[in-house]
Amino acid sequence: MKNFEISVLDLAPVKQGKSINNTFQDSLSLANFAENLNYKRFWLAEHHNMESIASSATSVLIGFIANGTKKIRVGSGGIMLPNHSSLVIAEQFGTLESLFPGRIDLGLGRAPGTDGLTAQALGRNPAIINEQFPRQILELQRYFSKENSDALVRAIPGEGLDIPMYILGSSTDSAWLAAELGLPYAFAGHFAPEQMEMAFKIYREHFEPSQYLDKPYIIACVNGVAAETSEEAHLLSKTLFQAFINIIRNDRKPFPAPVEDMDAIWSAMEKSMVLQKLKFNFIGDQSEIAEQLKTFQEKYQVDELMINSHIYDHQKRLQSYEIIKRAVDSLF
Question: Where does the secretion signal sit in this chain (predicted)?
Fold first, then answer.
């Protein structure tokens, strides 16, 4: 089994009965906790128009987390690039890298991170996304290059800085692009597991070495809910189940506390849909988590696992990440 790094994905979840300020303080607490456990990186994801997720101003929040930590890499998982001008993102991440040298990652996705109406409000043009996204990545690379110093339009701060870029995907489309550009690839297995295996196959088989990367590098994002006992872990996971039901019902309200009986909440069809979307959801005590991760890694051989742990109680969430880290360490 291939050795792998372990990292954190934080969606800045807003919980019922808690404020958005509580959310941000919990995110900082988690980042500090993960740093002390030697997690590799801490990523935040851009979403909009969702009461349950507070990471819409992703660059601002990255700065807050980086300022409150010392060594863990902090970045975007990701910035939804077609929502923005390439120059603005280059300047924002150039600013972050200048403030926190050697600690900033720029993960890039093409999805809107929201509904269609909000995507329109963000200024997206869906007719040109497939053309625009690859072009914007090349623009970012140019803005970050030293060679752009003679250009009429420059990213300052940003120019000449080494800011690692990652292509994010939830289908096979971005696998082709990441392979063509020779960039590391992160797959959103925590909510879109269906095409993950094929995406990895495409990326590995078609990868072209570049000045940024000489061989494929894969991050798989998965869900993880760990506790001291299996029974507690399964109870805690019911916050995540309810969150996915709310997505199915187009109800983006803040995340609820776990309930004892999910059958009182979901229909048989909803249950099937949720469990399909949560195929890569590791639940259990330390030994169960270790076995599930071992099975996953023996099949997919990823370079890094990024864990999203949706748990209502903040202390239980911290404990989940600690148990998952112990489970990973026990494998090697």
Answer: none
The domain covering 5-329 belongs, at the CATH homologous superfamily level, to: Luciferase-like domain (3.20.20.30)
Q: What are the residues facing 41 on neighbouring strands? A: 73
CB 31 within 8 A of CB 40: no
Instruction: Annotate 146-200 with DSSP letters as a single string.
Output: GGGGGSSS--TTTTT----EEEEESSSHHHHHHHHHT--EEE-TTT--TTHHHHH
- pTM as predicted: 0.96
Please, what is the Cα angle at 173 between 102 and 208, to 5 degrees? 60
Within 13 Å of residue 61, how many CA atoms lie on the same side as its CB?
30
169 close to 175: Cβ distance less than 8 angstroms? yes
What value does the mean pLDDT of the chain take? 96
Q: Taking the domains of the chain in order of start, what are their residue ranges? A: 5-329
Element (H, E) at 108: strand 104-109
Evaluate whether 278 touches 270 at the Cβ level (below 8 Å).
Answer: no
Alpha carbon of residue 189 to chain centroid = 10
Residue 151, CB-side half-sphere exposure with 13 Å CA sphere: 16
pLDDT score of 183: 98
CA nearest 42: which of 67, 15, 14?
Answer: 67
Q: Average of pLDDT values for 268-297?
A: 96
pLDDT tens, position by position, 168-198: 999 999 999 999 999 999 999 999 999 999 9
Q: How many residues comprise the chain?
A: 332
∠ CA 185-278-242, rounded to 5°: 125
Q: DSSP alpha helices (H): ranges in 37-128? A: 58-67, 86-99, 116-121
